[in-house]
Amino acid sequence: MSEIGNASDRCRSSSPTSSQSITETVNGSHKFTIQGYSLAKGMGVGKHIASDTFTVGGFQWAIYFYPDGKNPEDNSVYVSVFIALASDGTDVRALFELSLLDQNGKGKHKVHSHFDRSLESGPYTLKYRGSMWGYKRFFRRSLLETSDFLKGDCLKINCTVGVVVSATDSSRLQTINVPQSDIGLQFSMLLESKEGADVVFNVSGQRFQAHKLVLAARSPVFQTKFFGRMEDDSDEILVNDFEPEVFKAMLLFIYSDTFVEGDDLAACSSPSPFTGKETLASKLLAVADKYRLDRLRMMCESYMCKDITIDSVSHILSLADRYHALDLKALCLKFAAENLAAVMRSSGFQYLKENSPSLQSELLMTVAGCEEDCSSGGKSRSVWAQLSDGGDANGRRVRPRLT
Q: What SMART domains would the database entry show (predicted)?
């Protein structure tokens, strides 16, 4: 009986299995606008203008534009365009497409595509960080300057990268798809329906009903207020330091963990001594600081850093310092130090100088750090002198007025 059982076990077969190898590309695109093409001419053969880095397939990339060409033998007859691997990587295989965009609406773009030739030569392999693919003779410069690709002294280049990835997919006998979480939607509906609400906020005459338990779970300030030793049992709480639109956006974040986007961020604005208006994002930064909503603060910082310019950096720096937005503050200090001569001529800098001397000191320290990284020391040192010894934005010493 034992021998029969063993024979039966040997004859028993398992269910067949299968697997497949899938090789495909992860694609992404980046548009690089070059404003002031005529001013870039003459910078020298082999010298380039670089785009910001962008991520495709887990690697960072950058577009390099050579207004005088990359190849000395071409004697500046052509402009050159390359796409470079800007992060660490070994033997990264990818397909590329570089397009010079027609700006007169004819749709006749100049396209150099590796995607179309992938069957002939296969993907291009970039060996290490800094490896490039592109064209030394991308376009003859004399033709470019009379073409529809150059408009208002501006060029637009679109780059598409397709990073090759491979994976092995095994068969599955049973598959149950789990839907994405909708807890944010459910809590948003709870806020909208007001069912079970046990607290009312009076914000400039507009009332918002909410739930103490939800607020306390998201904010340590509300947790202390409603459930601390000196808990607040008031049915209605008066809020005087924020506008209704701002407070409503904060409640939406608390309940749904979402950040208002698009036109809503600019819809709520008010006068500012720096730029003429403050956006909803900057006002939400103040709310996030007051109620210790760290994730909301980071979302505001991420949005506001995109608006850093010569005219706005002093304003954003002041807000970042006031509301403990450390990452945003660091970006503002770095930007202001790198563009100090222009920033010093802005009205925002004068306000910063008169009202926030501590920030001016921090800016001095940032400039000092830039000086240490500067091999020549010329330009940054003169800017340091302007700030530290009373010079003006043009490098001239300003004699103090006698009274």
A: BTB, MATH
CB 136, CB 191: distance < 8 Å: no
Going by the DSSP 8-state scheme, the letter that residue 179 receives in this structure is P
Same domain for 50 and 161? yes
Q: What is the pTM of this model?
A: 0.53
Tokens representing 111 are 């396209």
d(CA 371, CA 377): 6
Cβ atoms of residues 254 and 294 within 8 Å: no
Interatomic CA distance for residues 317 and 351, integer angstroms:
12
User: Does residue 120 sit in the same domain as residue 215?
Assistant: no
Could you give the CA distance from residue 340 to residue 4 in angstroms, rounded to a whole number? 90
Q: Are residues 217 and 162 in the same domain?
A: no
Contact present, 76 and 68 (Cβ < 8 Å): yes
CA–CA gap between residue 385 and residue 378 (Å, rounded): 11
At 64-88, the pLDDT tens digits run 999 999 989 988 999 999 999 999 9
State the Cα angle at 294 between 291 and 299, rounded to 5°. Answer: 115
